[in-house]
Amino acid sequence: MPHSVETFLKLLGGAASPCALVSLGLFLAEKRQVDNGRNTSFVFTAIKLVVQPAFTWWIAARVFALPVDVVDMAVLLAALPTGTGPFMLAEFYRREAHVTSQTILFSTLASLVTLSMLLLVMQRHGI
Q1: pLDDT digits (tens, 9 = 90+) for 94-123
Q2: How many domains are there within the chain?
């Protein structure tokens, strides 16, 4: 691959996350109607931060019987907050982007608590 094409692709790849975050911030700052899907966002946040890590642990540890280190990594990855990818897809397809953006915001804030608790539990169990 020519050096100029490689440089262009590196710059383009490096700009994707900041552009997604700026777009998300602008969307969150936009004025909306009163019925803004906050309850749906809370449900999605709870599913993302509690149900998904628990399901990941069950699948990884019980169904596939993976090594403990791999199970721990999988659970930690599953417990991370919602990223900007779902927002970009929702905005692209014009489907509930406000719910997605609120879910990202709520899951990021709540993950400060849930990830800390998860790491504390893992540390106490010698993981």
Answers
A1: 888 888 888 988 998 899 999 999 999 988
A2: 1
